[in-house]
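Researcher: Go.
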Amino acid sequence: MAPGPETLAPTRFIDSDSDAVRAWASRAVAGAASAPVAIAERLFYAVRDGIRYDPYRVSRDPAAYRASAVAACDANWCVPKSVLLAACARAQGIPARLGFADVRNHLSSDKLSERMGTDLFAWHGYAELWLGERWVKLSTAFNIELCERFGVRALAFDPEAGALMHPYDQQGRRHMEYVRERGSFDDLPLDAIFATFDEIYPAMAAADAERDAAFHG
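Model: Structure:
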């Protein structure tokens, strides 16, 4: 389906009209060709590697999920990084939205699996950009340094096939398994995400809420 005007409009979380997002996007695409694919490629790598992956930065503060706030971070997790990519794309005139899926990380660390109580990552986020008359799914979650450290192939920008998590690592071990599609959204469905987290990760949700309360206390 061709994109509607809502995929170019600023929203509560995808605040593509903010000075912070516009400046971040402009820096990322400086010197790039004006074609949407060239711009999208620059934005993809800027978000992928410019903000390292940190699954322990899950905040309960909605303000932390605005693209303008994410632009000021040096580390974050898949959902905020996807929000920033979508916002930067819209700021550059490329229709964009958010996509989500539940994935099972067969190589999740013992520390993270213990914290979550499972290797199932609900609402794994990625951005969907309109390129070449099609929606292209692009995951920017894992920065290249993290991939090299754990022997996982870094996702490369592909304007046709997209860039979703690899099913196997470089040693042929099972890595990411997509188990459920959550759909596409014009803005971040944060309430739905947290409701699922409360159901699937009760201990983690309580710890996140306690940490936020201490930080803002």
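Model: The mean pLDDT is 90.
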